Amino acid sequence: MSLKLVVMGTGRFALPTFVGLCESSHDVVGLFTQPDRRGKGHHNHVNVMKEAADERGIPVFQPQNINQPEPLAQLRALGADLAVVAAYGQILSADVLNAPRHGCINLHASLLPKYRGAAPIQYAVRMGEQETGITIFQIEPKLDAGPILGVVSTQIGDKENYGELELRLRDLAVPLAVKVVDQIESGTTKPVTQDATAITKAPRLQKSEGEIDWSKTSRLVDCHVRAMQPWPRPFTFLLLKDQKPLRVLVLEVEDFRDSLPDSDARPGDVFALEGKRIVVTTGDGAVEVMSIQPEGKRAMSTAEFLNGRTISPGARLGSRPE
């Protein structure tokens, strides 16, 4: 026996699971994915999920709102036993959730109930977690709150950024998704209720949240720098006396364990050591900036950035002055 599946997903996170389910013993009868993006900012957009479905002759549906009567009727007409959701980007109504015989399950990139919301991977890195994973749960109307059907965990690398971790997690999701679908087909799932006392939130990030807060500990500054790559990018402003603030991306930092030249330095104070190294004070010590990208320029090493540039006493990294 096999289940008739509908997959709902968009983007690179959902793609491996879609392909894995297509190659499983189950029958993927349709894909619901976000509409194609056109116009400013989307000229080169390619919907990888749509391409993969077209290659396999699987019907593709791209409604602006899946909860409207027409897409809901399309979903029901497919006669699916189960919908598998991964980074779809739309809230599903009760009518959609009840359309497949076994309802809808969701792949979420955290160890629920931690980091419910749209940015679980970024929050796990940002908050300094050592472990994260993939949780598959039965979708209920409340956000990311349904019973857990399967979990896989992994350690977060010391230098791993958000983008790198996302790629690993999306691949970890594939065998787990196939396993859970197999268990639903055989009636052997063992749902586990989420612990309501352990809930944390991971709402969608705003571009402004990429700004680095140098008053945090050195470890959390490093976590922030990694969590904001590849988006929304970790930024700050180089503030030099009598010069216009320069917006820079700080792409890599390392803990600085030597003595600072100024024991009274405040968080954000900058020191150019030997003219080749930039050290910035933090809330509990200092970090060394290893890679930096000035606005409008390419990424470069700190030594390259300092080539021909003088960091004068009193230099700081911080917010642009009002």
Structure report:
This protein is an alpha/beta fold. It folds into two domains: 4-198, Formyl transferase, N-terminal domain (Rossmann fold, 3-Layer(aba) Sandwich); 207-318, Formyl transferase, C-terminal domain (Methionyl-tRNA Fmet Formyltransferase, Chain A, domain 2, Roll). It is 24% helix and 24% strand. It has eight helices and 14 strands. It has helices spanning 15-22, 48-56, 69-77, 94-98, 120-126, 162-186, 218-227, 302-306; strands at 4-9, 27-32, 60-61, 82-86, 104-108, 131-138, 148-155, 235-239, 246-255, 270-273, 277-281, 286-294, 300-301, 316-318. It has a seven-stranded mixed sheet. Strands 8, 9, 10, 11, 12, 13 and 14 form a seven-stranded antiparallel sheet that branches. Helix 1 packs parallel to helix 6 and helix 5 (120-126) runs antiparallel to helix 7. The longest helix has 25 residues, at 162-186. It is elongated and about 70 Å long. The mean pLDDT is 95.
Features:
322 residues; alpha/beta; Rossmann fold; Methionyl-tRNA Fmet Formyltransferase, Chain A, domain 2; seven-stranded mixed β-sheet; seven-stranded antiparallel β-sheet; 14 strands
Brief characterization of the structure:
By secondary structure, this protein is of the alpha/beta class. The chain has 2 domains: 4-198, Formyl transferase, N-terminal domain (Rossmann fold), CATH 3.40.50.170; 207-318, Formyl transferase, C-terminal domain (Methionyl-tRNA Fmet Formyltransferase, Chain A, domain 2).
Can you tell me the residue ranges where pLDDT is under 50 for at least 5 consecutive residues? none
Biggest sheet, spatial arrangement of strands: 3-2-1-4-5-6-7
- Molecular shape: elongated
| CATH structural architecture of the largest domain | 3-Layer(aba) Sandwich
Total number of distinct structural domains: 2
Helical content (DSSP H or I, runs of 4+) = 10-25%
Structure summary, number of beta strands: 14
Order of helices and strands: EHEHEHEHEHEEHHEEEEEEHE
The major sheet is characterized as: 7 strands, mixed
* Class of secondary structure makeup: alpha/beta
CATH superfamily of the largest domain: Formyl transferase, N-terminal domain
Please state roughly what percent of the residues sit in beta strands, choosing from under 5%, 5-15%, 15-25%, 25-35%, 35-45% or over 45%. Answer: 15-25%
**What is the CATH topology assignment of the largest domain?**
Rossmann fold
Radius of gyration: 23 Å
Give the oligomer, counting copies of the same chain as homo and different chains as hetero. single chain
Alpha plus pi helix count? 8
- Arithmetic mean pLDDT: 95
